[in-house]
């Protein structure tokens, strides 16, 4: 990779959040939108691109790899179900970098075979974001994953908070992703500042 990814990785479900919080100093962010028409998603991508370019923030698009390709994005994140239908050769040919979600050894093996630019493991802690068939992975699994992925950056996701970030880093996580710890906080801007301090 041409530059090291930030260790703080918030994930937001709209350009509204990105426009509001990226100017505070976020350098890595994911736009993860579900269940909207593609035209609307394109508008969110366009708005997110504008603010991220202005603030030198790396923007990662979840799932919508075809839109990401056509709109000149640099990164895409795919879950395991996304991998079933995504054209990885086309994604790579377009120069897109790729992050992949993993939850078990089989998924990790599949992900590493695709030479990802990062691997995400979750949920490290219980999460309220979505119902998952996987129970919390725990810090021991984070350490195990880091040993298995080697130099590939490892993202810890799921139930992460400012207080838990240091624990994840201590066992090998390179990057910590946060979702509801920010968006459900009484003061999201303050929480972002606390995250930036914890991950500096």
In short:
The protein contains ten helices and eight strands.
Mean pLDDT over all positions: 95
How many strands?
8
Number of helices in the DSSP assignment: 10
Name of the CATH architecture = Alpha-Beta Barrel
> Radius of gyration from the CA trace?
16 Å
- What is the CATH class name? Alpha Beta
- The CATH H-level homologous superfamily: Aldolase class I
Structural class: alpha/beta
CATH topology call: TIM Barrel
Give the strand line-up of the largest sheet. 1-2-3-4-5-6-7-8
Distance between the termini: 20 Å
Taking the sheet with the most strands, its summary is: 8 strands, parallel, barrel
Give the overall form. Answer: globular
> H/E order of the elements?
EHEHEHEHHEHEHEHEHH
Secondary structure: helix percent:
40-55%
Strand content: 15-25%
Count of distinct structural domains: 1
Provide structural commentary.
By secondary structure, this protein is an alpha/beta fold. It has a single domain, classed as TIM Barrel, CATH 3.20.20.70. The protein has ten helices and eight strands. It has an eight-stranded parallel beta barrel, surrounded by five helices. Helix 3 links the parallel strand 3 and strand 4. The longest helix has 17 residues. The chain is globular, with a radius of gyration of 16 Å. It starts with 7 loop residues before the first strand and ends with a helix. The relative contact order is 0.15. The mean pLDDT is 95.
Helix and strand arrangement:
Elements: E1 8-12, H1 15-21, E2 28-31, H2 38-54, E3 58-62, H3 65-70, E4 75-78, H4 80-85, H5 88-93, E5 97-102, H6 105-112, E6 118-121, H7 139-149, E7 154-156, H8 162-170, E8 175-178, H9 180-183, H10 188-198
Helix pairs in contact: 1-2, 8-10
GO cellular component, one term: cytoplasm
Pfam families: TMP-TENI
Family: Belongs to the thiamine-phosphate synthase family.
């Amino acid at each position: 990779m041409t530059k090291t990814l930030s260790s703080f990785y918030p994930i937001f479900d709209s350009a509204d959040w990105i426009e509001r919080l990226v100017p505070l100093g976020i350098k890595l962010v994911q736009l993860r939108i579900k269940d909207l028409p593609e035209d609307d998603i394109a508008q969110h991508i366009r708005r997110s691109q504008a603010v991220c370019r202005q603030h030198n923030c790396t923007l990662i698009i979840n799932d919508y790899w075809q839109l990401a390709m056509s709109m000149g994005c640099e990164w895409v994140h795919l879950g395991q179900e996304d991998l079933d239908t995504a054209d990885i050769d086309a994604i790579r040919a377009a120069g897109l970098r790729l992050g992949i979600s993993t939850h078990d050894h089989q998924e990790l093996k599949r992900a590493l075979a695709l030479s990802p630019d990062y691997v995400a493991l979750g949920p490290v802690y219980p999460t309220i974001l979505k119902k998952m068939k996987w129970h919390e992975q725990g810090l021991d699994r984070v350490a195990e994953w880091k040993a298995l992925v080697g130099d590939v950056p490892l993202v810890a996701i799921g139930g992460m908070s400012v207080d838990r970030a240091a624990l994840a880093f201590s066992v090998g996580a390179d990057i910590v992703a946060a979702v509801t710890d920010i968006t459900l906080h009484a003061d999201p801007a303050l929480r972002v500042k606390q995250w930036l301090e914890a991950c500096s």
